[in-house]
Amino acid sequence: MGLCLLVTLPLEFVFRARVYRRIRTLLLALLPVVLVFSVWDIAGIVRGHWTYSPRYTTGIVLIFDMPLEELVFFIVIPICGLLTYEAVGTGLGWLRRGRPSPRRPVGGGY
């Protein structure tokens, strides 16, 4: 997950994705994802549909035995997706104008 953040981090600067600069918008985008998937996971754990191997997790558990890694996953992957989405929107805007210009961000939307 750290590698995912590391690989997509340059998109914030090269393509002016502006994901990290708009903290409030980022949090509003993450909130429903984290809530829905956490509830989904907790329901699966409580019902015994799946478990997590202590061999592949840190052993830090949150409510209802959900491992910390699962929550981190629900935060990191959407951030990487938002960075990619914003970067693609900016790149397409540059192509439409016929010239790449990192000084003029398009800023998609989320």
UniProtKB/TrEMBL annotation:
Key words, A-Z: Carotenoid biosynthesis, Isomerase, Membrane, Transmembrane, Transmembrane helix
Residues in coiled coil: none
Transmembrane spans: 26-46, 71-95
Chief location category: membrane
Involved pathway(s): Carotenoid biosynthesis
Localization: Membrane
Superkingdom as given in the UniProt entry: Bacteria
Residue ranges of every copy of the Lycopene cyclase domain listed in the record: 4-86
The UniProt record lists the keyword Membrane: yes
Any Pfam family the entry gives: Lycopene_cyc
Listed name of the protein: Lycopene cyclase
Organism of this sequence: uncultured Propionibacteriaceae bacterium
